[in-house]
Amino acid sequence: MDSLIIRQPRSSDKEDIVAVYESRGFFDYSPSRPDLKVIVATVDAYFTELVSDPASIILYVAELEYRLAGFAIARKGARATWEVQSGVHFDHRKQGIGHVLLAALFEEMYKRGPAACKATVHAGNVASIKMVSRFFREHGEFTGLPGFLQFTTSW
Ligand SMILES: CC(C)(COP(=O)(O)OP(=O)(O)OC[C@H]1O[C@@H](n2cnc3c(N)ncnc32)[C@H](O)[C@@H]1OP(=O)(O)O)[C@@H](O)C(=O)NCCC(=O)NCCS
Hints:
- With about 160 residues, the chain is α+β, with helices and mostly antiparallel strands.
- It has a single domain (about 5-115), classed as Aminopeptidase (3-Layer(aba) Sandwich).
- It is built from four helices and seven strands.
- It has helices at about 15-20, 35-50, 95-110, 125-135; strands at about 5, 55-65, 65-75, 80-90, 115-120, 140, 150-155.
- It has a seven-stranded mixed sheet with strand order 1-2-3-4-5-7-6, sandwiched between helices.
- Strand 2 and strand 3 form a beta hairpin.
- Helix 1 crosses helix 2.
- The N and C termini lie far apart (about 30 Å).
- The chain binds coenzyme A.
- It comes from Rhizobium binae.
- This is L-amino acid N-acyltransferase YncA.
């Protein structure tokens, strides 16, 4: 994939990130399906956080042939634990973009120093499980949400 670029986001990417969230099947394995207003507010909040608290957030986007194809985000919460999420537009899935985005995210998290990291994934979300498995050392049932697994690692 010669034309795949992983880069930091620009304000003008907001709509395209929302479009990834809105693409087919995005919320199939989520506990709830937020409406458009909530998705827009969520993406706005990411961009606000990038300015107000840059040490606690990492956001990358994948650009394929000059079009935004996906994103990956890590946000640092309690006890220096990063929480990771990634999404690829339905039209561009199964081309390795999710893996490349997560690799970039982990490289940056490692650079930022010792920490733990977790990802919560539905047990039926095979694509996501395959994508995250390479990066996390352990996983187990997530007691907080029936049917979900929690992947964890630290460095
Ligand atoms: C999860 C998601 C980001 C993966 O993105 P992607 O670019 O398609 O992932 P990749 O192409 O890098 O594939 C990752 C692995 O999953 C496999 N895979 C991808 N889609 C699959 C599918 N529908 N069924 C089974 N396996 C699948 C790939 O073959 C690859 O496996 P490998 O590691 O053995 O080579 C994408 O499916 C998505 O956006 N899903 C909706 C949102 C979501 O569930 N996010 C995850 C929350 S962390």
